[in-house]
Amino acid sequence: MARLRRGSPALIRGLNRAAVLALIGTQGPIARVEIARRLALSAPTVTEVTRDLVADGLIRVVDQAASSGGRPALLLGLVAEAANALGVKIAPDRLAIVRVNLEGEILARSDEPFDALAANAVADLIERLRRSIDDADGTHLLGIGLGVPGTVDAQRGIVESPILGWEQVALGPTLGEALGLPVLVDNDVNTLAVAERLYGRGREAEHFLTVTIGLGVGLGIVVGGDLYRGARGGAGEFGHVPVVEDGPLCECGMHGCLEALVADPALVGQAIEGGLVPRDSSIADGIARLRTLADEGDPAARRIYAQAGAILGRAVAGLVNVLSPQFVIVSGEGARAWSHLADAFSGALRAATFPSLRGVAVEVDPWDDAKWARGAAALVLRATFAAPLYERQIEDSVRARLPGASDRSEQRPSAQADAAEKSV
Ligand SMILES: [Zn+2]
Questions:
Q1: For residue 398, pLDDT beyond 60
Q2: Among residues 355, 356, 335, 354, which one has the least CA distance to residue 345?
Q3: pTM surpassing 0.90?
């Protein structure tokens, strides 16, 4: 469990360093005076911290702000190439592996076949990651992030995933030991939310939701600038919100869950019932066929999507009413059929949203495996930028790999007690 650390000069220095690095990483390029203002730090503290970060090769002067008479302010930005991270999106039948720099830019990408159900799945994953580590030769790797469809104990790296057929798999510790790098694991929708917060629209937003549709229905909740996980780590099981009493059986064993009505298997089931796709279709083939029919204007196929869109819109209205987000991002493989879901979704969303909350923006993000893998890598980068306020081993181990981290922890007795707490 994460435990709050006791205050000490070293901790305060660490907090200031992390806060400044986080601000530059997420909001930069930025001037020292602006850093001081945003973090409520004194000018000498900012000068000292940024000098250390420059000396460590993590930040540099990248530009000058336009001058309005006086001396133009120097803008500080990350040294993107100072370190890299690997990100992996795991699907039942494939992996996407990316290597990103500190700015989250993808430097290398590979899409590989994978069989999550195979007895040697984890060993195979280790082999493939070993190759990616070899390919990265020469670059300084901070760690590996993995996004997994399922419930993840992110602190201990343990995965429970019916979709992958994985029961209580200690993925983080196993990979960490085999590969000798910090390994962070999280639910894949959460990794998408983290990426959105670090690099996307979430940079300027403290409260937003990412909803994913496809094989299942997922939800990432960002509240107050950080991922909300709930008491036991399972927050975001949006797919299992009850919608219809005595509705169709869900994979979870309950009846009438949202997922059992609008996820791909449900849509394919409805298409089979309606005679639109062959009875023996796989989910992938069935959904592709259904989408093609809808694209061609088949009214029965379009009805299936419209019905699903309305159910989803009503369910998202429930989220908006409870959480009052600044915006909602819809993504996932299912978003490829968004043109057929959109009208019914919007109508139902508006109709069921509390009047003062109506008009919340919904943005549809095109599906891309690499984007999810980048989100997984963002888990590592986020740990880099996180304040070392809590004793969390895995994030500490990522920060310990930052250039200059070890020799800066106990030196210099200065730094005011104006530590800023800032999480990404
Ligand atoms: Zn369910």
A1: yes
A2: 335
A3: no
Distance from the CA of 55 to the center of ligand 1, in angstroms? 52
CA of 165 to the centre of ligand 1 (A): 16
How far, in Å, is the centroid of ligand 1 from the Cα of 341? 21
> What are the DSSP calls for 83-116, one per residue?
-EEEEEEE-SSEEEEEEEETT--EEEEEEEE--T
Q: State in Å: Cα 253 to ligand 1 middle.
A: 6
Tell me the C-alpha distance between 120 and 139, whole Å.
29
| Residues near ligand 1 ion, CB 5 Å cutoff | 240, 250, 252, 254, 257
Q: In the chain, helix, strand, coil percent, each to 5?
A: 45, 20, 35
Give the pLDDT confidence of 30-53 residue by residue, as tens digits.
Answer: 999 999 999 899 999 999 999 999
Distance (Å) from CA 237 to ligand 1 centroid: 9
User: How would you classify the pairing of strands 151-153 and 141-148?
Assistant: unpaired
CA of 316 to the centre of ligand 1 (A): 16
Reading the block at residue 187, the tokens are 């639910």
